[in-house]
Design a protein that fits this description.
Length: 144
C-alpha cells in the first residue's frame, strides 16, 4: 500500500473509531496481530484489545476528541502528532472522576500491514494529563 492508503487507515482510526466511537471499525482496520502501547497503562493486542482500550478511555472521558495536527506517511508507516481534549467524567486508572477538562498532545507511530494497523506506538504527555485531571498535584517551584 502507498502513503495515501496508509493515511486513510489511520484517519479512520481517529475519526471513526475514536471521535465517532464506532467500535465496528476496529475489526476493519486492526490486524489480527495488532499491538498497541502507551505510557500510562498496559499494552493491548488484537482488534478486541483495541476495542477495550477505546471503551476504557471513552468511559473515563466520554467527550474525548482527537485532532490530527501533523501527518507523515510512507509505504509502511504513518506518524501523527495529535491533540486530545476531553473531560474526566468516569474512572481512569483507578481514579474517580474529577469533572476536570484536559488538553494533551501526543505522537503516534502506526505501522500498516495488508491494509490494516498492526502496530500503534504512542508517546503522550501523560504527566500533564494526570496533573490536569487532579491525579498528581501541580508541582510548585520553590524560591531560593
Amino acid at each position: 500500500m502507498g502513503a495515501a492508503e496508509n493515511k486513510a487507515v489511520v484517519n479512520r482510526y481517529f475519526e471513526e473509531l475514536w471521535n465517532n466511537y464506532d467500535l465496528n471499525v476496529a475489526d476493519e482496520i486492526a490486524h489480527s496481530e495488532f499491538f498497541f502501547t502507551i505510557p500510562t497503562h498496559a499494552p493491548s493486542y488484537g482488534p478486541q484489545g483495541l476495542k477495550d482500550e477505546i471503551t476504557m478511555l471513552h468511559t473515563a472521558f466520554p467527550d474525548i476528541h482527537f485532532s490530527q495536527e501533523d501527518v507523515f506517511a510512507d509505504d509502511e508507516r504513518v506518524a501523527v502528532r495529535w491533540v486530545a481534549r476531553g473531560t474526566h467524567l468516569g474512572e481512569f486508572l483507578g481514579n474517580k472522576p474529577s469533572g476536570r477538562r484536559f488538553w494533551i498532545e501526543g505522537i503516534g507511530s502506526y505501522r500498516i500491514k495488508d491494509g490494516k494497523m498492526i502496530e500503534n506506538l504512542v508517546n503522550e504527555d501523560s504527566l500533564n494529563l494526570l496533573i490536569q485531571i487532579g491525579v498528581i498535584p501541580m508541582p510548585s517551584v520553590s524560591e531560593g
